[in-house]
């Protein structure tokens, strides 16, 4: 099992995602002889998981069942243990596209946090790229390095425990892209520029407050970055439902009427409502939209 390579069968030591319901999932470290408690009963790793295909339906001790899924960055984002506030798939997808990441890209990131974005970056830049990620908090840095090893992506990432605003990323002139998710990104802009390749690249910053965005944009402009712009992404999910609509009765079609024969009796007039209807699928917009998460600022370092 690896977050960047698919495996068919569950093996001892894998990290699997146990799917309980649409809004309830949990990561499980598969170990010989271990058990996992769920609302539907016990999952026994030796008999219920190891050797089974990913995607299998597993019956728990109470008779209920769960699905066991292969881990992906998207599933990890919605099931990971939160050590910090994290980025979700809507923002992650935009960051990956706007930074122009691809297999073989070299990326610098700070701060690592819970590793939500890090896993998505690693999947995108594998198998030949590399992620240099910096985390200020020592325990978080140690924990995320341990998770990278468990998820078998540690060969693609270097974790550093340091202050990026003072000490930079620990590399110079190697990065195709830089991402900043720290309280004062404007203090790290010069280090981001130093870490990037001479042929240029892309930089992005995530900030919840517009005052942070203003200072970051000023620092980017002072350092010679171009194409500076800021986005705010709000996800609006429409509900799909089935409705039944009554067909209107416009009466008989005058153009289709003909003069009745003298010996032919006119049909009696119809009375009562017309109950004809049609059933169709439609969408309804949400009554409420999830609130603001943060601003994404992007810029380009020109070739030097």
Q: Compute the number of helices.
A: 8
- The H-and-E topology, N to C, reads as EEEEHEEHHEHEHEHEHEHEEEE
CATH level-two architecture of the largest domain: 3-Layer(aba) Sandwich
| CATH fold topology of the largest domain | Rossmann fold
CATH superfamily of the largest domain: Vaccinia Virus protein VP39
Biggest sheet record:
7 strands, mixed
The end-to-end span amounts to 42 Å
User: Which CATH class of the largest domain is shown?
Assistant: Alpha Beta
In brief:
The chain is of the alpha/beta class. The protein has helices at residues 45-49, 73-79, 89-98, 116-125, 138-150, 164-167, 189-195, 210-222, and strands at residues 15-21, 24-29, 35-38, 41-44, 57-59, 65-69, 106-110, 130-135, 157-161, 177-180, 201-207, 226-231, 239-246, 277-284, 295-301. The radius of gyration is 28 Å and the shape is flat.
Walk me through this protein's architecture.
The protein has 304 residues and is an alpha/beta fold. It folds into 2 domains: 9-71, Vcp-like ATPase, Chain A, domain 2; 75-234 and 291-301, Vaccinia Virus protein VP39 (Rossmann fold). 23% of the residues lie in helices and 28% in strands. It contains 8 helices and 15 strands. The strands form 4 sheets. A 7-stranded mixed beta sheet has the order 9-8-7-10-11-15-12, sandwiched between helices. The two termini are 42 Å apart. S-adenosyl-L-methionine binds at residues 114-117, 135, 163, 181. This is tRNA (adenine(58)-N(1))-methyltransferase catalytic subunit TRMT61A. Residues 248-304 are annotated as: Disordered.
What distinguishing features does this structure have?
single chain, 304 residues, alpha/beta, Vcp-like ATPase, Chain A, domain 2, Rossmann fold, 2 domains, seven-stranded mixed β-sheet, four-stranded antiparallel β-sheet, 23% helix, TRM61_C, S-adenosyl-L-methionine, acetylation, tRNA (adenine(58)-N(1))-methyltransferase catalytic subunit TRMT61A, SAM-dependent_MTases_sf
């Amino acid at each position: 099992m690896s977050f960047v390579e698919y495996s068919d069968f569950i093996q001892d030591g894998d990290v699997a995602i146990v799917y309980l319901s649409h809004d309830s999932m949990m990561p499980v470290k598969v170990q010989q002889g271990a058990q996992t408690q769920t609302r539907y009963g016990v999952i026994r790793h030796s008999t219920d998981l190891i050797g089974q295909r990913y995607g299998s339906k597993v019956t728990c001790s109470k008779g209920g069942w769960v699905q066991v899924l292969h881990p992906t960055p998207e599933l990890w984002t919605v099931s990971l243990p939160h050590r910090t506030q994290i980025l979700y798939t809507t923002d992650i997808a935009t960051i990956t596209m706007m930074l122009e990441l691809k297999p073989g890209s070299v990326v610098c990131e700070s701060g690592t946090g819970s590793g939500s974005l890090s896993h998505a970056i690693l999947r995108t830049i594998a198998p030949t790229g590399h992620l240099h990620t910096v985390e200020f908090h020592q325990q978080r840095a140690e924990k995320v390095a341990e998770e990278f090893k468990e998820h078998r992506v540690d060969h693609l990432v270097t974790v550093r425990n340091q202050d990026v605003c003072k000490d930079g990323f620990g590399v110079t002139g190697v990065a195709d892209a830089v991402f900043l998710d720290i309280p004062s990104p404007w203090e790290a802009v010069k280090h981001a520029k130093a870490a990037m390749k001479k042929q240029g690249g892309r930089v992005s910053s995530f900030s919840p407050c517009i005052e942070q965005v203003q200072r970051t944009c000023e620092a980017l402009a002072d350092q010679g970055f171009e194409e500076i712009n800021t986005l705010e992404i709000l996800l609006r999910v429409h509900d799909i439902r089935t409705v039944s609509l009554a067909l209107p009765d416009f009466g008989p079609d005058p153009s289709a009427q003909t003069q009745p024969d003298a010996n032919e009796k006119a049909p009696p007039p119809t009375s009562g409502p017309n109950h004809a209807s049609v059933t169709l699928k439609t969408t309804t917009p949400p009554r409420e939209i999830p609130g603001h998460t943060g601003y994404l600022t992007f810029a380009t370092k020109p070739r030097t």
